[in-house]
């Protein structure tokens, strides 16, 4: 084992590995009667006064008798200090003996490095002594600190002391042949190596699957609403239910583990019961959306059970809207709306109380906004909201995320927003409550949970502060649970700016810049004080259904068994045993190259220190092969990557341990192997004298050869035919009869061809053996594979697809099962073809066309699959754009097994010379009429597209001319000039729209007219604008007023006059809010007189009205379009 030198004689750090290996043996004197003496191990402190205070410290004294007569290398027996086993290594004349060596070497070794678990580590400070027995003050001592690991398992000093001085009888180190060596060790305690949440807090965390921190925070909050947890336990489930398909059972299992186990809990069963795939686990959603969807689903599952209405009883409150006229005695009240959580504004509000004030704020309806009462007509009125009931558990969703219409993007509001430990909703004489609300209920709430979002608009991290007992705050951050104080749970999550910024370096006491806090509360949970005891009721195992508890106890017991097995794994070796039976089953079905797949054979878990003779007895019991019928061979990996049985084990190996057999009987400090692969040979020859099965005697000339037989009929089959032993001096011809016998061929069979299977990577290599050559001349070694087949003449060979062994192995190496699915129906079952990965593009198309009954393969166009998402890629493959099937299936370093195809209406080479545009045709009233695919040569222009599309329209009502527009998100971004080449038009990301071009006709046309962009929009209370519907263009006369334009727009849009009268018109830009137009305003003066421009900063004419059409998808704050949470 390599031994490191920590210090030179001068005291400098100087790591020098020792060249020689050290065999660990007891340090026995030449006289066996005088063995090494071990002093008692005592606990010592720095002063040697308080011996029992530090269990991680101790001393050991090694007394060596007849020292000057001992061997060069000595090893002490093993002793224990600090809970670890150690021993000392001493080299009398240095760890590097030679003419220049003048020093004794001394080292401390971690004794159980061979049996310690992988990744083990310990740190210790130790002092090594060579004791002077005449004058202890002259003892040689050296001290060092070292971290012992698998690779650095020993450490010490190669120049401990000059060996001549140590061995000089007059110096006092060796007295009466006796030398004393001492070591003082202090092992360092590993602090914070593992945080035990259960031990520290009494609770456990949840494992994050990738981006499920939002879900973990919500589940912890719901779990600690004890009444909710109890209701989940009481939901009826059946013993045969699958937790990956039953949401109630999955939630029961997870809550049970959270309550009664000691380690963090997985949520995989729960998410699978939701119907989520792996993609969902890496997609962060909104915690409030998940809360609503999950509670709605659980409420549905609780129907018709004894816990029905639990969700409503815990979380549901109600409010109503009212409108009260100011000048007449009239009031209208809507029916009550229920809520499971309340969304409170953060923007413009400093606290929860301010948000409730804003929520219930009374709005005056005056002027153009007067209320139309059923009895009194238009009236000034007040409109507001009042609460009818508050729930026992009040969930408040803080609207930290909003849409900035000025910048057209999502933003996070990090403003300071305070929330109290106690929330009194009866304050101000109950001004938030309706007059008929139940005032006997005291709506004083205590803060139970704070769910925090840390990060920005495009992502971040969720965690939760919860106080299950109403006193101690705990932070639940995925799998870690820690204690926290009220300041961390409340004050530090108000948001805003850092109140105590660090001092800027170099500026004395001047504060640094204040930084915005990006970690702030996103959801609050309050529990009503008078309902606290009921909501936070005790939940015990008695609440769990028996079959659920039993199932989970069994799972826990199995988990403990696996845990113990894992902890003890370093003590065991996995011995994988391949037998002749395994080879017969695998070769030709699952294995074609080499001999065996060790994942498919019997694996025995064996203690490393078990003697091999005992292992043989174990194998006899496990495999049913008596010990006397066992001969074992070790497998070796050759330089060409193949794995073959090459080394038979001798009888002497029976006395070795299994680990020694694995290592070949050579001691080593290298990483201990965890597996050993063996081949069990059983006798296959019979003794001429007794007729019993016996093993052939192995000599230096013996060769073990394993035999495969290949039959080229019916596409080719390969099977294992057994093994033979030959002599190196034999010719190939002399072993042919034995090979035929192993292949079960009759004596009248045709001659045999013999191939040596050499390797399969990077290319298949087989060599045909000459019958006249000797086995030695063929360079055969133990474990080589002979593939034999009947010899074929030329006519017979032509009848077979793979006539010889190399042909068949080439086919097997490159064959690939490919599924072809229609691009328009990518989830269909499709057709499967077994093809070669080296097959060229044209051959792949030909094979699929034959399967589909298609005459022309060039009518096929292929699209690759993304193997991770298992959906088609966006762009199809070009004709002959890749050379082989492997390239068609390649996705980075992964080879897919699916291709998508289309059947075209003209050959692909011709199609690729054309440009196909998807054009949406809109009629004169701006509504979409239909979608057209226009296919033209790439050098065509926008005018050609318009004319081609015009000819496709019905002759009746066909417009005289069309124009082509580029539309995105309900705005017109470009009017294509007639001469623009279509090859530059992108219809993948932009909508290409065609419409009649008749704006230059009529009274509005003229030299001073303007072509105005007109968009539909609506604005919220903050004047934030959202566009919707179909944008359109209007030709506006130079002096045309809004009053004159409105009838033309109403007629163009086909809107009823009474409805259009309610619409308001305004001038807008992307960066400014709407400026309302009056009927007498001249419209053209508000807009530039250009026919072709981008909307950019240019103003447009907006029509304000309600959006009654389908809404466009909104982009979420994580950078993609909103994918709603779905729970199956």
UniProtKB/TrEMBL annotation:
Q: Where is the MATH domain?
A: 57-185
Segment Disordered: which positions?
1091-1119
Q: What class of enzyme is it?
A: hydrolase
Source organism (scientific name): Elliptochloris bilobata
Q: Which UniProt keywords apply?
A: Coiled coil, Hydrolase, Protease, Thiol protease, Ubl conjugation pathway
**Name of the protein in question:** ubiquitinyl hydrolase 1
A single Gene Ontology CC annotation of this entry is:
cytosol
A GO BP entry is: proteolysis
**Cited InterPro entries:** MATH/TRAF_dom (IPR002083), Papain-like_cys_pep_sf (IPR038765), Peptidase_C19 (IPR050164), Peptidase_C19_UCH (IPR001394), TRAF-like (IPR008974), USP (IPR028889), USP7_ICP0-binding_dom (IPR024729), USP_C (IPR029346)
């Amino acid at each position: 084992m390599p031994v490191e030198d920590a210090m030179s004689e001068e005291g400098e750090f100087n790591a020098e590995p020792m060249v020689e290996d050290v065999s660990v043996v007891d340090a026995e004197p030449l006289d066996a009667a005088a063995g090494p003496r071990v002093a008692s191990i005592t606990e010592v402190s720095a002063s040697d006064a308080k011996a029992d205070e530090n269990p991680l410290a101790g001393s050991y004294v090694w007394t060596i008798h007849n020292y000057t007569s001992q061997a060069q290398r000595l090893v002490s027996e093993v002793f224990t200090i600090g809970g670890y086993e150690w021993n000392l290594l001493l080299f009398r004349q240095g760890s590097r003996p030679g003419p220049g060596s003048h020093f004794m070497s001394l080292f401390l070794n971690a004794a159980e490095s061979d049996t310690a678990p992988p990744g083990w580590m310990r740190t210790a400070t130790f002092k090594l002594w060579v004791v002077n027995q005449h004058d202890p003050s002259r003892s040689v001592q050296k001290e060092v600190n070292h971290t012992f690991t698998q690779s650095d398992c020993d450490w010490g000093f190669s120049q401990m002391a000059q060996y001549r001085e140590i061995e000089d009888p007059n110096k006092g180190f060796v007295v009466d042949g006796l030398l004393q060596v001492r070591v003082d060790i202090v092992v360092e305690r590993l602090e914070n190596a593992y945080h035990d949440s259960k031990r520290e807090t009494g609770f456990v965390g949840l494992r994050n699957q990738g981006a499920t921190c939002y879900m973990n925070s919500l589940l912890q909050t719901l779990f600690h609403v004890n009444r909710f947890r109890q209701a989940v336990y009481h939901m009826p489930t059946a013993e045969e239910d699958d937790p990956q398909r039953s949401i109630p059972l999955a939630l029961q299992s997870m809550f049970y583990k959270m309550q009664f186990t000691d380690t963090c809990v997985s949520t995989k069963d729960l998410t699978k019961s939701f119907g989520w795939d792996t993609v969902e686990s890496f997609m962060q959603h909104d915690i409030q959306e998940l809360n609503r969807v999950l509670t709605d689903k659980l409420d549905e599952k609780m129907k018709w059970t004894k816990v029905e209405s639990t969700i409503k009883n815990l979380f549901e409150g109600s409010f109503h809207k009212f409108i009260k006229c100011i000048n007449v005695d009239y009031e209208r009240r809507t029916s009550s709306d229920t809520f499971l959580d309340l969304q409170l504004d953060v923007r413009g509000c400093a606290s929860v109380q301010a948000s409730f004030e804003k929520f219930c704020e009374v709005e005056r309806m005056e002027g153009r906004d007067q209320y139309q009462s059923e009895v009194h007509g238009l009236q000034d009125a007040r409109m507001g909201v009042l609460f009818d009931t508050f729930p026992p558990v009040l969930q408040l969703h803080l609207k930290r995320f909003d849409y900035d219409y000025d910048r057209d993007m999502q933003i996070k509001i990090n403003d300071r927003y305070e929330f109290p430990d106690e929330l009194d909703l009866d304050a101000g004489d109950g001004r938030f409550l309706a007059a008929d609300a139940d005032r006997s209920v005291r709506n004083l709430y205590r803060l139970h949970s704070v769910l925090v979002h840390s990060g920005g608009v495009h992502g971040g991290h969720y965690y939760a502060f919860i106080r299950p007992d109403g006193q101690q705050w705990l932070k639940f951050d995925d799998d870690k649970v820690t204690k926290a104080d009220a300041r961390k749970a409340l004050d530090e999550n108000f948001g805003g700016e850092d109140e105590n910024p660090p001092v800027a370096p170099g500026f004395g006491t001047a504060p640094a810049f204040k930084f915005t806090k990006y970690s702030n509360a996103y959801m609050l949970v309050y529990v009503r004080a008078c309902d606290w005891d009921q909501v936070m009721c005790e939940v015990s195992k008695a609440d769990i259904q028996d079959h659920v508890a039993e199932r989970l106890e069994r799972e826990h017991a199995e988990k403990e068994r696996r845990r113990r097995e894992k902890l003890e794994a370093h003590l065991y070796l996995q011995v994988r045993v391949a037998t002749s039976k395994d080879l017969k089953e695998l070769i030709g079905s699952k294995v074609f190259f080499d001999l065996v797949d060790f994942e498919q054979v019997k694996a025995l878990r064996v203690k490393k220190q078990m003697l091999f003779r005992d292992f043989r007895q174990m194998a006899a019991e496990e495999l049913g092969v008596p010990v006397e019928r066992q001969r074992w061979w070790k497998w070796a990996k050759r330089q060409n990557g193949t794995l073959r049985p090459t080394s038979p084990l001798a009888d002497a190996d029976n006395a070795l341990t299994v680990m020694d057999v694995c290592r070949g009987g050579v001691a080593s400090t290298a990483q201990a192997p965890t597996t050993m692969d063996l081949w069990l040979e059983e006798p296959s020859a019979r003794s001429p004298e007794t007729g019993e099965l016996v093993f052939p005697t192995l000599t230096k000339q013996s060769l073990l050869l394993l035999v495969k037989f290949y039959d080229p009929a019916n596409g080719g089959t390969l099977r294992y035919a057994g093994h033979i032993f030959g002599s190196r001096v034999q010719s190939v011809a002399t072993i042919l009869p034995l090979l035929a016998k192993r292949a079960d061929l009759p004596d009248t069979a045709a001659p045999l061809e013999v191939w040596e299977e050499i390797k399969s990577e990077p290319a298949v290599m087989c060599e045909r053996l000459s019958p006249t050559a000797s086995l030695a001349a063929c360079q055969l070694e133990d474990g080589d594979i002979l593939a034999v087949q009947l010899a074929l003449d030329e006519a017979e060979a032509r009848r077979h697809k793979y006539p010889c062994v190399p042909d068949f192995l080439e086919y097997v190496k490159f064959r690939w099962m490919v599924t072809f699915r229609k691009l328009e129906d990518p989830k269909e079952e499709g057709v499967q073809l077994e093809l070669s990965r080296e097959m060229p593009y044209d051959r792949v198309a030909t094979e699929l066309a034959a399967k589909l009954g298609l005459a022309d393969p060039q009518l096929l166009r292929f699209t690759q699959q993304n193997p991770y998402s298992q959906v088609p890629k966006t762009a199809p493959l070009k004709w002959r754009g890749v050379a082989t099937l492997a390239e068609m299936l390649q996705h980075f370093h992964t080879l897919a097994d699916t291709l998508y195809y289309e059947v075209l209406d003209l050959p692909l080479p011709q199609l690729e010379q054309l440009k196909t545009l998807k054009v949406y045709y809109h009629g004169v009233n701006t509504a979409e009429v239909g979608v057209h695919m226009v296919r033209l040569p790439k050098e065509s222009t926008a005018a050609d597209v318009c004319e081609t599309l015009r000819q496709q329209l019905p002759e009746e009502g066909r417009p005289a001319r069309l124009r082509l527009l580029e539309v995105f998100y309900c705005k017109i971004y470009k009017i294509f000039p007639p001469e623009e080449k279509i090859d530059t038009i992108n219809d993948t990301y932009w909508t290409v729209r065609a419409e009649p071009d008749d704006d230059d006709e009529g009274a509005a046309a003229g030299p001073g007219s303007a072509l105005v962009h007109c968009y539909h929009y609506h604005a919220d209370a903050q004047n934030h604008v959202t566009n919707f519907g179909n944008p359109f263009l209007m030709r506006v006369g130079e002096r045309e007023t809004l009053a004159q334009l409105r009838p033309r727009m109403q007629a163009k849009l086909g809107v009823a006059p009474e409805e259009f009268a309610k619409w308001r018109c305004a001038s807008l830009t992307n960066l400014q809010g709407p400026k309302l137009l009056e009927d007498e305003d001249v419209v053209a003066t508000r807009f530039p007189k250009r026919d072709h421009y981008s909307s950019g900063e240019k103003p447009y004419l907006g029509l304000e009205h309600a959006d009654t059409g389908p809404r466009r998808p909104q982009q979420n704050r994580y950078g993609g379009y909103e994918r709603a949470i779905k729970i199956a």
